[in-house]
């Protein structure tokens, strides 16, 4: 890559100040709006029960194409795009449903053998949550689209990562990836608890290091490929050598260490608040903030100070996601048989999600408001406490909205007679495309990084027209979706 062009690319993503939180909320609201229309088509017409090419294309256009439009052509008209998605859903709810929908819905899903529905079986204490699958799949879609779209002029600069202070779409995307990882990390912990298994601290640490090893390898591969190919990089994002894969790799061991102290502070959410508060105190009361922002890069620590110290904010975000997972993933102990009320399950979910959302939103405004708080500014570069609270509030609110949509259109997901029927009902409430992205999320994210590098090495993205940029982005999105859905169809899960 020519040095002059490399400099242009680096300048293109540097010294940015971001946009407003409200605009970010409207743009990202396209994901639940698309799921709303998908759910209306499924619940009222049974459109995705027979998953052929038309159903796949519609699924792709709604849950991937809608997000791509929000990031590019409709970036300044997100409210209009949301309206265009919600209006048909409302119309479908008003019109009578397809007459043979109930007959089709009662049949086993395609390629699924008919199974006995009368067997007496305890329901899973950790049921599949379709709204969690949809949330995580949508988050991965947004992340994968943004990391390439940011290199084109059609992607607004206010959506790209800010230099130091401010909020942007890509900033909340980084934190959301960590929050989502924390959310699903609660499942194996809960499974061990329900099984009555107790593992030693040593075994937990060994398991954490095994989980970290593939991510460390990916981190080193990215490091050497970026340096070897003289690829454009934004040094103030993570540092000279650090990258996001290293942050993800070091999270499991540190969380395992923190969980060993959980007997002293049993509430994971409180541990998250304490860590972010201690880190913020160090930023404000010592020279740490000045060191991160202005120190010369003379040794390994100073060269990678952004990645090293923002890691502590990521730990707090990871624990915030894990705390939510502990609360919303398990079924109530009294609701593990077929006679329990689905509405009671729904009320519990919605109540806890609403409480968590209110807590994080209140904390965010308490530290950023000029009138009632400290008026701290959000900084993704520091991963400071306002950033932790903002990411946690954003993700809890998003999950709450997805749960509301699921509740409105698929109210009977959790009242099946046994585990087999419950899994079947969950599949009916889940987009195949988003399920596929969720199933192999990290592998698809890695593929997205490789394709992004390939595009940037072969095309002059800065000079491409809007039409040319959209052609590349649509092809890229279609390829990622085809790989994800193909892996899911072949029942392959790539664990990294």
UniProtKB/TrEMBL annotation:
Keyword Coiled coil included in the entry's annotation: no
EC nos: 2.3.-.-
GO MF, one example: glucosaminyl-phosphatidylinositol O-acyltransferase activity
GO cellular component, one term: endoplasmic reticulum membrane
Pathway: Glycolipid biosynthesis; glycosylphosphatidylinositol-anchor biosynthesis
Domain of life: Eukaryota
Entry protein name: GPI-anchored wall transfer protein
Organism: Letharia columbiana
């Amino acid at each position: 890559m020519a040095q002059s062009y490399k400099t242009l690319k680096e300048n293109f993503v540097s010294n940015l100040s971001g946009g407003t939180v409200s605009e970010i909320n409207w743009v990202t609201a396209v994901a639940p709006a698309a799921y709303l229309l998908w759910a209306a088509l499924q619940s009222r017409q049974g459109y995705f029960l027979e998953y052929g090419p038309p159903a796949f294309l519609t699924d792709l256009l709604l849950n991937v194409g809608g997000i791509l439009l929000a990031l590019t052509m409709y970036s300044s008209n997100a409210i209009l795009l949301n309206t265009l998605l919600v209006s048909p859903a409302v119309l479908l709810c008003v019109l009578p449903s397809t007459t043979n929908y109930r007959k089709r819905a009662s049949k086993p899903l395609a390629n699924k053998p008919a199974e006995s529905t009368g067997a007496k079986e305890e329901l899973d204490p950790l049921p599949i949550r379709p709204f969690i699958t949809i949330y995580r799949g949508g988050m991965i879609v947004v992340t994968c689209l943004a990391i390439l779209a940011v290199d084109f002029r059609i992607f607004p600069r206010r959506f790209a990562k800010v230099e130091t202070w401010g909020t942007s779409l890509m900033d909340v995307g980084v934190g959301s990836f960590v929050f989502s990882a924390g959310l699903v990390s609660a499942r194996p912990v809960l499974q061990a608890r329900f099984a009555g298994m107790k593992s030693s601290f040593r075994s937990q640490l060994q398991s954490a290091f095994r989980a970290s090893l593939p991510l460390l390898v990916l981190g080193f591969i990215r490091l050497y490929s970026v340096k070897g190919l003289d690829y454009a990089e934004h040094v103030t994002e993570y540092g000279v050598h650090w990258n996001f894969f290293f942050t993800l790799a070091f999270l499991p061991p540190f969380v395992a260490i923190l969980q060993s102290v959980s007997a002293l502070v049993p509430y994971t959410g409180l541990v998250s608040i304490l860590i972010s508060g201690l880190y913020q105190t160090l930023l404000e009361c010592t020279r740490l903030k000045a060191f991160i922002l202005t120190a010369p890069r003379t040794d390994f620590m100073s060269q990678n100070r952004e990645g090293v110290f923002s890691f502590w904010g990521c730990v707090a975000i990871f624990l915030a996601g894990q705390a939510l997972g502990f609360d919303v993933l398990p079924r109530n102990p009294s609701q593990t048989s077929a006679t329990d009320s689905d509405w009671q399950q729904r009320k519990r979910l919605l109540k806890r999600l609403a409480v968590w959302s209110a807590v994080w939103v209140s904390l965010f405004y308490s530290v950023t408001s000029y009138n009632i708080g400290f008026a701290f500014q959000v900084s993704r570069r520091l991963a400071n406490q306002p950033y932790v609270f903002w990411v946690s509030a954003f993700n809890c609110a998003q999950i709450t909205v997805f749960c509301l949509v699921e509740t409105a259109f698929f109210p009977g997901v959790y009242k099946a007679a046994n585990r087999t029927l419950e899994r079947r009902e969950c599949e009916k409430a889940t987009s195949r495309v988003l399920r596929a992205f969720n199933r192999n999320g990290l592998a698809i994210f890695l593929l997205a990084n490789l394709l992004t590098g390939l595009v940037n090495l072969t095309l002059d993205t800065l000079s491409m027209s809007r039409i040319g940029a959209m052609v590349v982005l649509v092809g890229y999105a279609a390829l990622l979706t085809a790989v994800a859905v193909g892996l899911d169809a072949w029942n392959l899960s790539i664990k990294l």
